[in-house]
Amino acid sequence: MLRLFHRLPTNRITRRSLSTGLISRTVRVESLAEGYNVNRVLAAIKANPAESITVAKDHLLVRFFNEDMAKNCVASGGGTSGAVIKMDDALSPPLSAVDVAALGRLGMSRSLAMTDIPNKVQEKDVLEILSQHGALESWIFDSPKRTATARYLDMHDAFQARLPFLIKFLF
Description:
This protein is of the alpha+beta class. The protein has helices at 38-44, 67-76, 97-106, 123-131, 155-170; strands spanning 3-6, 26-30, 52-55, 60-63, 84-87, 111-115, 136-142, 147-152. It is globular, with a radius of gyration of 17 Å.
């Protein structure tokens, strides 16, 4: 039977650390070269766990779950050559009650893992369904093991992708 679950980051988010007010919890990574590799930049600045990532031509916006996580990212300086990492000037909206509940109760994250994928399901079928729900940072399909892992740029997209996949292949 197909199983879906979210992969939690190793540094778990505690209830106490979640942002509930209007603060700046978004980091701006600018002065990136045209055609930059999003995955390399995210790895270099240690941008996990993050609520969402907005990709632009010459910069990234990374929204963290609280202000401290964002400040730690800026303080670490990252390992991106020539990039400027700073707090974004705009205030970030608070996490909604639904987001907090999904994080705490359901372990929601930007990663979605699937195991026991039926043999009749092909790689292109999985990718087609997953890509309908938002931009993917990366994804891996392991045909012999019948598993797949998708990493979205936004945790809401990962959460929304679960239902259509279940409906299409289980019913």
